[in-house]
Amino acid sequence: MTRETDTRAVEAANTAFYEAMERGDFETVSELWLSGHDGAPHSVISCVHPGWPVLTGRGEVLRSYALIMANTEYIQFFLTDVKIALAGEVAVVTCTENILSGGPAEDGAELGPLVGQLVVATNVFRRTFDGWKLWSHHASPVLTENDEEESQEPGS
């Protein structure tokens, strides 16, 4: 495979991950993570969601996505600043997740209030017999100027 072919395949796997999240498609999200049965048996997966501790192992990671999907009525990702670096059987994708999400509706409304969030993410993929699979996802919130001002002590 050429470097360009690999880059396109990694980009497609990364896009598929976010699209599955938007649809609430847990089965596809699960299939996109390394399983140990896909030619990478010694790869322990890991995940860090903003504000969460490190999750390791397929069970913990997939439980976290099931929990997020169960408690998120609506989510949409607008990815910007996407960069892909390849190193043999590993690919690192960095991007900014511009997230629009809404929780369960209240008082008979169709959808709960929408909230915007800016998160930077690093997604590490590993080539397997079944294509590129997620090995690690690490997402961290981006502080805005207002967030920074609110977190400072008065008089500092």
UniProtKB/TrEMBL annotation:
Domain SnoaL-like, chain residue ranges per copy: 10-142
Transmembrane regions listed in the UniProt entry: none
Pfam families listed in its UniProt record: SnoaL_3 (PF13474)
Signal peptide range: none
Protein name from the UniProt record: Nuclear transport factor 2 family protein
